[in-house]
Amino acid sequence: MSKSVLNLIGNTPLVKAKHLVKNPNVELYFKLEGQNPGGSVKDRPAYNMIKMALERGEITKETKLIEATSGNTGIALAMIAGLFNLDIELVMPENSTVERVQTMRAYGAKVTLTSAEGGIEGSRDFAENKMKEGGYFMLNQFGNNDNWRAHYHTTGPEIWRDTKQKITHFVSSMGTTGTIMGTSTFLKEKTSSVEIIGVQPTENSRIPGIRKWPKEYLPSIFDAKKVDRILEVSEQEAKEMTRRLAKEEGIFAGMSSGGAAAAAVRLCEELKEGVVVSIVCDRGDRYLSSDLFEQ
């Protein structure tokens, strides 16, 4: 029995791939972040950013929060802001899936949609301009150290524990980069030999949750020295692997998880041996109105 939904954040399952990897000397594990109460890995930083801002006195019950999001962070912030009785406005591109928008509203958030052409960069500009006009506080997931610290204190230690300290490679999609920054920092402190692999889209590929940021929008929390290698995946690769995850492994996830899994499977086939962990960052049910699962 849990006293609060907040106690259910973290300690997500780590499950071994049964069919995707053909290399007998490599084990691939998926960390199922969709098992968090808000349905994604973003519950971790959302909770930490709000909790720490409250503890420092940066925000109060009277504060109006505003944040740009491509989806999962917004859902997590909406859920957690509601639990703390905080007012929040979430800004996202108008081509975001209806499931995401409706979920945020269900948690009590105000949702403002910006043009699809402007993408998440346009949403970030809108939120920042509104904050500068006054009356709003932005948590700024792209530049907030409490984002990556959430993974340093939870995701990294969980992976280290659940692999019995045998992890050799960690694979993560790169969006705000909080997951890979925090997990890398922890794992590198434990063993310098662990290899951290970031996943980005190929040129002209659109994969929700994975970005190759223009220089002026690169998250300030990102430190390139904490990523040993970057693998690129195409939109088609990500879609196909997302469908394979569901059909072959019973893991119903979103497209960024498929992108990370595609990179992880490719990595497994080139290694002589190893224990690889790939982040499955959310659930597939928030993509059902898109063409992701159309054959």
TrEMBL record:
It is an enzyme of class 2 (transferase). It comes from the Bacteria. Its cofactor is pyridoxal 5'-phosphate. SUPFAM superfamilies: Tryptophan synthase beta subunit-like PLP-dependent enzymes. It catalyses: O-acetyl-L-serine + hydrogen sulfide = L-cysteine + acetate. InterPro entries: Cys_synth, Cys_Synth/Cystath_Beta-Synth, CysM, P-phosphate_BS, TrpB-like_PALP, TrpB-like_PALP_sf. PROSITE patterns: CYS_SYNTHASE. Pyridoxal 5'-phosphate binds at residues 72, 175-179, 256. Residues 224-251 form a coiled coil. Pathway: Amino-acid biosynthesis; L-cysteine biosynthesis; L-cysteine from L-serine: step 2/2. Its EC number is 2.5.1.47. NCBIfam families: cysKM, cysM, PRK11761.1. This is Cysteine synthase. It comes from Salinimicrobium catena. The lineage of its organism: Bacteria, Pseudomonadati, Bacteroidota, Flavobacteriia, Flavobacteriales.
